[in-house]
């Protein structure tokens, strides 16, 4: 068999024009196409870098324009551009104009072609433009804030102070304007879960009939995936159907605190409206199962949330006997059985340590509002406790900004209006996505994606590190989807040493200028101040 080397040698030894001429023509065309692609790529990359520098220059020039002569504003803008542009500033033709509070920055740069000379095209002119004006837009702003345990102490105090200053700066716009709702602000504190508020139990978008495919994943069910209604008290059913709310009501005086699990893929990264006809879009309340008693625990396992005796309540048979009858391991059946939640006199109240609200540690989110006192109160009440789930923070921040259910205070620009409406999400975290481990058949503690053994984030994804990696991917996808929906995203990485998380946060932002890497408490304050200034003073027109 001939090798490639043999074929090439034959070609070079060939003296017939029947081969040489077609090859030469084909080779020339291929090289021309490749060269054009390289030239286009170089021009596109230059335009991206140039646009970012021009955007930043237009914003900076408008910040510094108050009380200055037009010539001074232009000079400052040129100095700023020359300082930040990653390319050669001398190769850029920069034009700055100032008129009636509007700063316009235009830039043109010639990019030398590598192969364009073949077609008498020695260079390609790349042009960009950015304009900033004193805004009359309306703004919906949601702050998505990490309340995990690592935020304790001075970090949380600094976050509260910085967020308070931002809120007061923005609400001042309403106070000075004839239009008293120019700015609305919402809050989404997040830890392992997001708490949407225990008062949402009767909302139509909650899974009150147990229809979602994840509703009964950790409970005893029949072959069709639904529980035996005879195992529960029918007086607590909704439309004749049981749900996790039924179990809460059976546990006397035990309230659902308001935490919800992540919707199944792909709805975990979307703002699709809840629809009963699509059960996956409904929101499922957290109800952490009672884990096996010591006598039913598998050898070597350690459980975190054993809060009811497995043979108590309405159970007539011991778990061991029923497990043998069903052909299930004792430890699994002891956790899944439903009868133990009946006839319970014990109250678990508002506890998030052990019980059905396990690890629901964060404060409820605050819907968009013009009430400054509400936002400042809820900021003050934030507490640091729990793990980190940036994904759930981002997706719920987006849902708060949306005008559709589950939260409906979000606004969109009216088609017949000349006014602009801007939707802004500020995402702040001090650490990486995490999932709590458990040395048992469950693989992990119960969190927003259930137990690790359920593999809700993908087949084979059941360990804490695999889930954390998948959470990063879901966070990035949620950010991209929110941006496609018109959300302007700012991010603040606060004292994070993990480069993967810093990069994820940077990529989550709408552009590089909207991503802040705060290495100290002072940097965090400066980041929030800068964001408040951008929102309150300017809007950017491309």
Question: How do the helices and strands line up, and which of them pair or pack?
Answer:
Blueprint: H1 4-13, H2 17-63, H3 70-84, E1 92-99, E2 102-112, E3 123-134, E4 138-146, H4 154-176, E5 183-190, E6 194-195, H5 244-250, E7 259-260, H6 319-326, H7 330-336, E8 366-369, H8 372-380, H9 390-401, E9 421-429, H10 464-484, E10 487-494, H11 499-508, E11 515-518, H12 521-537, E12 538-541
Parallel strand pairs: 4-5, 4-9, 9-10, 10-11
Antiparallel strand pairs: 1-2, 2-3, 3-12, 5-8, 6-7
Helix pairs in contact: 2-3, 4-8, 4-12, 6-7, 9-10, 10-11
Features:
single chain, alpha/beta, four-stranded antiparallel β-sheet
Describe what you observe in this structure:
Helix 11 links the parallel strand 10 and strand 11. Helices cover 34% and strands 15% of the residues. The chain is built from twelve helices and twelve strands. The model has no long low-confidence stretch (mean pLDDT 88). By secondary structure, it is α/β, with parallel strands linked by helices. A six-stranded mixed sheet has the order 8-5-4-9-10-11, with helices on both faces. Strands 1-2-3-12 form a four-stranded antiparallel sheet. It is elongated, with a radius of gyration of 30 Å. Helix 2 packs across helix 3.
Please provide the ordered H/E string of secondary-structure elements: HHHEEEEHEEHEHHEHHEHEHEHE
On the 0 to 100 scale, the average pLDDT is 88
Largest sheet data: 6 strands, mixed
Q: DSSP helix count?
A: 12
**What's the multimeric state?**
single chain
Q: Which segments are poorly predicted (pLDDT under 50) over 5 or more consecutive residues?
A: none
Q: Decide which structural class fits the backbone.
A: alpha/beta
Could you give the count of β-strands?
Answer: 12
Helix content: 25-40%
- Strand % is 5-15%
Distance between the termini: 61 Å
Radius of gyration: 30 Å
**What's the arrangement of strands in the largest beta sheet?**
8-5-4-9-10-11
Shape: elongated
């Amino acid at each position: 068999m001939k090798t490639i080397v043999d074929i090439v040698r034959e070609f070079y030894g060939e003296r017939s024009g029947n081969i040489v001429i077609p090859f030469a023509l084909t080779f020339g065309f291929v090289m021309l196409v490749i060269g054009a692609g390289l030239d286009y790529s170089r021009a596109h990359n230059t335009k991206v870098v140039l646009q970012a520098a021009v955007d930043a220059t237009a914003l900076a020039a408008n910040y510094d324009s108050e009380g200055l002569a037009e010539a001074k504003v232009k000079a400052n803008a040129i100095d700023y551009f020359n300082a930040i542009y990653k390319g050669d500033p001398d190769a850029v033709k920069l034009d700055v104009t100032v008129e009636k509070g509007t700063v316009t920055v235009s830039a043109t740069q010639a990019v030398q072609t590598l192969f364009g000379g073949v077609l008498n095209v020695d260079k390609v002119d790349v042009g960009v433009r950015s304009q900033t004006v004193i805004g009359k837009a309306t703004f919906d702003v949601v702050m998505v804030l990490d309340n995990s345990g690592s935020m304790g102490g001075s970090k949380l105090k600094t976050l509260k102070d910085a967020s308070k200053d931002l809120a007061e700066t923005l609400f001042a716009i309403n106070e000075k304007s004839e239009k008293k709702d120019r700015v609305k602000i919402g809050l989404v504190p997040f830890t392992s879960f997001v708490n949407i508020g225990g008062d949402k139990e009767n909302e139509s978008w909650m899974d009150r009939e147990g229809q979602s495919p994840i509703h009964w994943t950790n409970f005893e069910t029949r072959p069709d995936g639904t529980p035996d209604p005879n195992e529960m008290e029918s007086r607590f059913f909704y439309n004749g159907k049981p749900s996790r709310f039924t179990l809460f009501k059976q546990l006397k005086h035990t309230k659902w605190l308001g935490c919800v699990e992540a919707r199944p893929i792909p709805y975990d990264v979307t703002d699709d409206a809840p629809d009963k006809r699509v059960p996956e879009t409904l929101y499922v309340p957290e109800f952490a199962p009672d884990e096996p008693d010591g006598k039913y625990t598998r050898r070597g396992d350690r459980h975190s949330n054993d809060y009811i005796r497995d043979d108590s309540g309405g159970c007539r048979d011991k778990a061991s006997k029923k497990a043998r009858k069903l052909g299930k391991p004792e430890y699994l059946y002891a956790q899944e059985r439903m009868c133990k939640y009946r006839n319970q006199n014990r109250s678990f109240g508002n506890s998030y340590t052990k019980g059905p609200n396990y690890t629901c540690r964060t404060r409820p989110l605050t819907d968009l509002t013009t009430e400054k006192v509400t936002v400042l109160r809820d900021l003050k009440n934030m507490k640091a406790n729990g793990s980190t789930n940036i994904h759930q923070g981002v997706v719920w921040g987006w849902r708060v900004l949306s005008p559709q259910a589950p939260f409906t205070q979000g606004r969109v620009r009216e088609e017949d209006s000349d006014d602009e409406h801007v939707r802004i999400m500020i995402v702040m975290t001090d650490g990486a996505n995490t999932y709590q481990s458990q040395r048992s058949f469950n693989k992990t503690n119960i969190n927003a994606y259930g137990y690790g053994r359920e593999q809700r984030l993908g087949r084979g994804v059941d360990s804490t590190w695999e889930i954390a990696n998948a959470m990063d991917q879901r966070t990035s996808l949620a950010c991209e989807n929110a941006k496609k929906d018109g959300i302007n995203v700012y991010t603040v990485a606060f004292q994070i040493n993990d480069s993967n998380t810093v990069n994820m946060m940077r990529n989550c932002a709408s552009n590089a200028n909207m991503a802040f890497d705060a290495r100290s408490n002072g940097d965090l304050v400066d980041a929030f101040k800068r964001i408040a200034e951008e929102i309150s003073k300017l809007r950017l027109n491309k």
